[in-house]
Amino acid sequence: MMSLLNYALIEPDAMARVDKRAEESGISIAALMERAGQAVAACALGHYPQALRLVVLCGVGNNGGDGFVAARALKESGAEVAVYVFGDIGRLKGAAKQAFDCVGMPFAPLGDYRPVAGDVVIDAIFGAGLSRDVPPQVADIIDDIERAALPVIAVDLPSGLCGKRGIPLGRAFQAQRTVTFMARKPGHVLMPGRSLCGDVEVFDIGIPRRILMEGCGSIFENHPSVWAAAFPKPDGETHKFKRGHLTVFSGPSHATGAARMAAMAGFRAGAGIVTVAAPHEALGALSASLTAVMVSGIETEEELIDWRDDKRHATYVLGPGFGDLDRARAFVSLLRDKALVLDADGITAFKDEPQRLFDLFAANAPRILTPHEGEFARLFPDIAADKTLGKVEKAQAAAAATNAVIVYKGADTVVAAPDGRAVINANAPAYLATAGSGDVLAGIAGGLLAQQVPAFEAAAAAVWLHGETAQKLGPGLTAEDLAAAVRPFHP
Fold this sequence. Notes:
alpha/beta, 7-stranded parallel sheet
C-alpha cells in the first residue's frame, strides 16, 4: 500500500505555506525553482522530441521563474527555444528574478507570440497563483494556441484553472501534460480540471516530507490508502451474522430490478446475509429471480417496526426503485437510529422538506446519502447555488448540514464526512454512466456498512470498488454485469 501522502491533495494556499516553511527551514527557494524548471525541461525533451521549437510563456511570479529555468535548460540542451513574458518584468523578485537574469536569451511580450506549426508550448504564466479571471490578453493567447492545435505542457496547473475548485477562471489552457511539484492539488483531480491537465506528473523537488505533511489537510484522492485500515480483519471465527445482515427495500413488482441489483452488489461486497424487503404483491416476482438473497414482505410501518426491532437487522438501503415517496419518508423516520444508505427515491422523497430529513439525522448513526447533481440541487438548493464553493466544499457543507456522509456523484464523485474529511474519486471510466449503476453503488455501500465499516470509509471504498469493477469489465457493461462482478475488498 502506497503512502497516504501520495494521495494528499493540497490546496494552493496550503502549498504556499509549505513553500514558506521550506524557506524558513533553510531550504533555498532558488534551488527548489531550479529543480522544478529542470523537471519541466526534462518532460518537454522526453515527450516531445519532434518539437521544432519550444515556446515558454512566463508570468512574473514563481511559476514564471520555473519557466525561465526550463527555458535555460532547454536552450543548454540544444533545443530551439523562444520566451514570451506576460507582465512587467520590473515586478520580478527573489528566485524568479534570479531565474530571469540567468535565462541567457532574448524575450518578447506575450502579445507578440504567434503560434506556428511545430511549436510545443510550455505554460508558466500563472500556475496555481491565480484567483481571478484570466486577463483578456491571456485568454486570446489560449484561443490562438487552441485553434492551432499545439501541444501544451502546463507548469503546476494550466493557467486559468482554479487549483482549489478545478474550474476555469474565465478561460484555461488545455494541456496535454502537467508537471506539478511534491503533491497534487484538488484542481488536478476535480472535473473539468482533470481533463484540462492531461497527464499529470508529480516531481519531488526536495521539500522534506515532514514539512509537506504540515500542508496536508483533509482532502485526498480516493484510494485504499485512505480507508483500508478501517476494514475488519478476517478471522477464522467469522460467520454470516458477524458479517452483517443488509436489508434492501424494493418497489412494486414492475420495479424490482433496482433493489435486486443493489442487493446482489451488497452481497458480493461481503455482507453475510441480504434480504430484499418488498410489498407483498412483489414477493412472487422477487422469489422467482433471487436465490441466495432472501425476500420478506414489508410494506406497512408495523411490519417494518417488527423487522427493525430484531437487532440483527441493523443496516438498510432505501431508494432504488422504491417509488412510494410518502412511504419512503415514513420508513426513514422509523430507521433514524439504524445504519442507512439513502439513494434515488429515498432522497427525492425529501426534496420539498429537506429539513425534515436533517432533523431525522440529528441522532448519531452511520448514514450515507448518494445524490447525483440534480438530487443534490433539490435537497441542498442554497449550497448548490453558491458559486463561490467548489464541489468538495459543497459536499462538505451538505455533510455538515445532514450529519451524514455525502456521496456527491459524477465523473469526479466527492465523498465528504460531517467532520470535513473528503475524497475525490478518479477511477470511474466514462462507460460507468449507465442505467442502474447508482443502484449497484448503493448496494456496495450498504454491504460495507453491514460489515461495520464506518460510514465515511464505507462510502469511499464503495465508490472506489465501483470504479475498479467497471474498469475490469470494460466498455459495454450493464448494471447487471457490474452487480455480478463486485468482489469484497481485502486489505
